[in-house]
Amino acid sequence: MGRYRPPQKPGSKYITPEGFQRLNDELSYLWKKKRPQVTQAVREAAAQGDRSENAEYIYGKKQLREIDYRVRFLRKRLDNITVVDTLPSDTTRVFFGAWIELENQHGETLRYRIVGPDEFDPQRGFISMDSPVAQALMKKSVDDSIAVNTPEGDNELCIVAIYYGTPKIHDE
Question: What is the 3-state secondary structure of 66-127?
Answer without folding.
Answer: HHHHHHHHHHHHHHCCEECCCCCCCCCECCCCCEEEEECCCCCEEEEEEECCCCCEHHHCEE
